[in-house]
Known about the structure:
Layout (H helix, E strand, L loop, with lengths): L3 E5 L3 H13 L3 E5 L2 H11 L3 E5 L7 H9 L6 E5 L2 H10 L5 E4 L4 H14 L11 E4 L4 E4 L2 E2 L4 H11 L6 E2 H8 L8 H18 L6 E4 L3 E4 L3
Parallel strand pairs: 1-2, 1-3, 3-4, 4-5
Antiparallel strand pairs: 6-7, 7-8, 9-11, 10-11
This protein binds calcium ion (CA).
Amino acid sequence: MNDKVLVVEDEPKLAELLADYLRQDGFLPEILADGLAVVPWVRTHAPDLVLLDLLLPGRGGLEICRQIRTFSSVPIIMITARVEEIDRLLGLELGADDYICKPFSPREVVARVKAVLRRTGGISEPPNSALSLDETSFRATLRGRDLDLTAVEFKLLHQLAAHPGNLFSREQLMDRIYPDGRVVSDRTIDSHIKKLRRKLAAVAPGEELVHSVYGVGYKFEVE
Ligand code: CA
């Protein structure tokens, strides 16, 4: 199955133990101990599930959970050291998928991970999973349908979709699309984006994937 599981836990021994059990079951665990590192990591690595300790240095599990939910529906299992906390957490409607209380047996955690993944549809899909980009052929498909993009449109989409939620200025996009330093006008980027959006809309009508932020630039985001 090789599902990527992010283990956010600041007690190194506990984190290692969980990672070992997950590995034995065929998961690909990754450990983060610093609360501040979690949100950027989730954005760039799109894990299949997050095990999230409540008390962390840097930024607590509550805040992390809230922030992840603004851009991702990745299953989250919250871990707390106090059973009384769970009622309070449930009341907060954080969008976590399950709660585990410490002390736990690693076996139980792995079982819960599997149960949550089963419930949420086996391998959880990152928000843009329906989009597939083949860099060798410059071919992009959305929900299995060929978008028929030009090379420039492909590069634009690739740049934006690789960093969902990140805002890119026209200048940044130009730098990445024309690495030879060619200078094109802002309007050129706008017109490529316009065509790109039209092609996306043809496959996914009513869904905005490439958003423009007035006066700033563009970002890729799935609502
Ligand atoms: Ca902790």
